[in-house]
Design goal:
Belongs to the glycosyl hydrolase 9 (cellulase E) family. By secondary structure, the chain is of the alpha+beta class. The protein has two domains: 3-265, Glycosyltransferase, CATH 1.50.10; 330-431, Immunoglobulin-like. The chain contains 13 helices and twelve strands. The strands form three sheets. It has a five-stranded antiparallel β-sheet with strand order 4-12-7-10-9, with no helix packed on it.
Amino acid sequence: MARLAIASAAVALLVLLAAASAEASPAWSDYAGAFDKSLQFFEAQRSGKLPADRTVHWRGDSALTDGFSQGVDLVGGYYDAGDHVKFGFPMAYAVTMLSWGVLEFEKEMVAANSLNRALDAIRWGTNYFIKAHTEPNTLWVQVGDGDSDHLCWERAEDMSTPRTASKIDASRPGSEVAAETAAALAAAAKVFRHYDSMYADLLLMHAKQIFTFADTFRGRYDDSLQCAKKFYPSASGYQDELLWGAAWLYEATGDEDYLDYVARNAEAFGGTGWAVREFSWDNKYAGVQVLLSKVLLAGGGDGDYADTLKQFRAKAEFFIPGYQPPPGSLHIGGAPLEFVHAVTNSWEHNGVDHYRHTVTAKNTCGHPITYLKLRIEGLTGPIYGVSATHDKEMYGFPSWVTRLDAGEKLTIVYIQEGGPAAKIAVAEYKTG
């Protein structure tokens, strides 16, 4: 379902290794090829009127009247995952990640002769977002119907399924997709600042308006758009995207009002509470923590923001694997487990949305874990696979588990009655 979003994250990782091909090291050429194929995938997912210089020659023009029946031009953008729906939420995340990859590894992309293609891939997405933002408080966030589209396997050039377009506005808010779109436009604005300053200004104008819309009219987008709920439900809520959008606007503008926004809302929105191994189209907390940790690393973050940025850095260091502890010692705040979160079911009961979350915790510290205490915050329903302790929000091994060997996994399942996912972090552990 989320191949476009996954491919975008892969770009940021692959390009770090692709650079070595510029030094004529044969061992690295495969990484450059993998990065090239990631960009090729994006090109194959393009919707709309394709340019003559495209490299994916078997693709042709498609969906040339998207939005027309509803009085708006929504031609362009990216299809989602081999199907023909344009889901704005993962599409915006994909563009954000592409832009972040360019910002971090621009020189390496130049060396791998891939920068121009990466810029084209970003612009293809941002041009669509500009079209989709038809009024300050209106954003078109989906074209196509997932159910009917997935019943028919056909070429995009020959599609016959409905192209209904859906939007969010003040009466039907969608803070997740709006804030993620603002992040995508802000990140792209920073990318294009040195290549096309007028275009960067245009991107920033839309980014600021869309972020204000997301923050002013708060609400879950999958409550406003039932057509998106089945395919991209917002398990983590919209608070992470609001922090993410503000962080990228600060990165793109240097305007401390955005940094102040993150600092003021970090605790209430969960930005300093999440310590997990997940970073995805749905959950942006780790991204916020890593992105704003750079402010400290660059020597900034004095004064009112220092404490918040230090908390972000601590969470970022949890997210990025680092020092592995020796066996037999007691650790507090370490990172022995790799958490993988997934929403495995959802339903509605008495007007309340319920989500079943499955969390797989894998022992990655290299030693058996003989004692474990997890802090689990924000639960609104039952939890299985761990045992409650006398301490509030603290959980340990279930009665049938006495140790977790290296590489073994512990499965935790919980039911959440609406709202964001619970926050799970390691409080203490012991190896032996």
